[in-house]
Every structure is written in C-alpha cells, then in structure tokens.
Design a protein that fits this description.
The chain has helices at about 50-55, 65-70, 70-80, 95-100, 185-190, 200-205, 250-260, 280-285, 290-300, 315-330, and strands spanning about 10-15, 25-30, 35-40, 55-60, 85-90, 115-125, 125-135, 140-145, 155, 155-165, 170-175, 180-185, 215, 225, 235, 240-245, 265-270, 305. It is of the alpha/beta class.
C-alpha cells in the first residue's frame, strides 16, 4: 500500500515471505550486498537455500510457533558453513534457541573444519539484557558472553527496538540506513570520469562531513579536493523499515509503535482482525484493520504494508486492505490515495 513515492533509489528490498495471510516472516535484501535480514521465522519453505544462506541477522518478535518454527530450516542449511548468525529477540530467546539446538545429536562435528556460531541478544525493558553464544564445534554448548557493543548494528544498518505487550512481551523493530548517497552518473561522465570504486571514497567522505579541501583520488589518478566533487553525489535521509506484529491495542503500545515507526519508508504492521471484530481482537491481543491504519497514519509513514491477516478472512483480502486504507488515509486527507 503506497501513500506516495520516495525519490531515492531504495537500498533495502523487503518481501513478506508468506504474503499477508501466512506465517510472519519478512526477508530484507540489500542492493549490491550478499547480506540479508530476516524478521521472524515462521514457515520458511518459500525461501530458497541461497536466500537462507544470506541471512546473517534474525530478529524475532516473540516465541509463538508461527513466528519461530522456521528456525530449524535456517539451522539446517548453515551446518558445515563458516558463519555467524546474530539473533535478537525478547527475554528467554537464548533458552529457546538452546532447546532447539540441543534437540539434535552433534556427534559428527569433528568431521567439519568450519564453525557455525549463533550469537543471541535478549532485549529487555531498558535495552539489551544479556547475551549468549552457541558454537557448532562445541556441540552448541551455551556460553554466556558480554553484550556485544555493536548489537544495534546489522550489516551497517542501525537497529531500534520497542518492547510491546501481546499475551506476553513482544519486540517491534526498525532498521535504517545512516544516510543514502546517490551518484549522478550523467554528471560523472560530463566531468570525464568513469564510475568505479573511487566513488565509494567520495561517498564516505561526503557522509562523514569531511572538509572541502580533503583530497579524493579519482579514476584518472589525480587527487581533487572534495569541494570540487560534491556535485557528483546527492545525500538524502537513509531508508527506514519498521516491523511490528502481534500487539494489543493499548495506549502504551500505540505510543511506542508510533515512536518506533515515525517517518518510516515502509511499515509492516499486523492487521489481524477486521474492524467489526474489535471484540475478538481485544480478547486475543491483536490489532484490527482500523487500528493498523490509525497507528501508521500517526507515525507519518510513507508506505504501509498490513499483514498477518487471520485465515477467517482468506477470501476477503481486498476488504481488509480497504479497511486499513480508510483509516490510514481518510477522505479528508490531502495526501495521495492509497493503492494496494
């Protein structure tokens, strides 16, 4: 659902693995990067082995089966790989990962030269609470470790969290680029340069706010001052994606979600029940379509992607989208109409 188009070329490309009705799982690819991020891991059978091998960070909202059953698929494809996978989730996730890992016999680990490592960070009321590590070569015996100083960094993206209430604790996530740098190829060519790795140094200098007299090596072998090259790039606010699911419609949750999602370029927010089924939504600690649209509108997001629709509406997807749209961009809004 779109309320307006972003001018920047997106770096982050999110996909709902199982659509709007299936198990929650959001696969986020990064332009020109092998790395990928995964938010929740319900049924992952729709992802290829190649996709799963790209995942270096897993963000888990909570431990209900439809959000965590796919962990085994992620584990299986990575056995025998030299890999570190960081898992971030609510209190108790390290214990749940441990149970998953110790459910299997690891009597053949000596045959492998590679080390698969899971690094777990638990998020509490005041940020990261504790961390643990599980090594393949040690048969995934649990090791308590210090909380990594870079826990909030995922492949160069900044991670923000919000502690929310479902039936228990649930984590909402936002990831954002520090800045988005576009290179104007036409301007590069007009200056007699060619595109290449030298532009990475130029982009890094601009983002860092380096002085105009900083020398930058260009592809001709010359070194030119940064001030003479600034016109070749444009810096805009970095892309932001927010993911929230399985939350009760309470004032505290609404305030926390709006703060987390503020100004997001893409907001993936559950809309479990139709507006007329608000009583059911309250009893099951989920959002209605109306609540989803209202929260997203309050956060001023550019694009809203409602998901986690209840199977009871399986033949009513357009109705669900229309109800979200009505609350997200009501007729009185001056913004562009939403399209599904």
């Amino acid at each position: 659902m779109v309320v307006g188009a972003s001018a920047m070329t997106p770096t982050l490309h999110p996909t709902l693995v199982n659509g709007r009705f299936g198990d929650p799982a959001l696969f986020v690819q990064m332009l020109h990067r092998r790395d990928a991020l995964l938010f929740d891991c319900g049924d992952l059978s729709a992802l290829s082995t190649r996709d799963l091998l790209r995942v270096g960070h897993l963000f888990v909202s909570h431990m209900h089966v439809d959000h965590f059953i796919g962990f085994d698929a992620l584990l299986r494809v990575n056995i025998g790989r030299e890999k570190v996978i960081r898992v971030i989730g609510p209190p108790g996730i390290a214990e749940r990962v441990e149970h998953k890992l110790l459910a299997y016999d690891w009597d053949l680990v000596e045959r492998y030269d590679t080390e698969l490592l899971f690094e777990i960070v638990e998020i509490g009321a005041h940020g990261p609470d504790r961390a643990a590590r599980f090594r393949f070569k040690r048969r995934f015996e649990r090791e308590q470790i210090e909380i990594p100083g870079d826990w909030y960094d995922a492949a160069g993206l900044t991670v923000e969290t919000a502690l929310l209430e479902h039936h228990g604790l649930c984590i909402g996530y936002a990831i954002s680029e520090p800045a988005h740098v576009n290179v104007w190829k036409s301007r590069v060519e007009e200056r007699g340069f060619t595109t290449g790795n030298w532009l990475q140094a130029l982009k890094a200098a601009v983002v860092a706010g380096a002085p105009d007299d900083l020398p930058i090596a260009v592809d001709t072998g010359q070194k030119l001052p940064l001030g003479d090259l600034r016109e070749l790039v444009t810096v805009t606010r970095g892309q932001k994606i927010t993911y929230v699911t399985d939350v009760a419609d309470t004032p505290a949750n609404r305030a926390a979600i709006v703060g987390l999602a503020q100004g997001a370029d893409a907001f993936f927010l559950e809309a479990r029940f139709a507006t007329e089924d608000a009583a059911i939504a309250r009893s099951r600690a989920h959002l209605t379509t109306k609540a989803t649209g209202e929260i997203a509108r309050g956060a001023g997001v550019r694009r809203l992607e409602p998901f986690h629709f209840s199977p009871r509406y399986e033949d009513q997807e357009q109705r669900m989208l229309d109800e979200v749209a009505a609350a997200f961009a009501p007729a009185s809004s001056k913004g562009e109409p939403i399209s599904a």
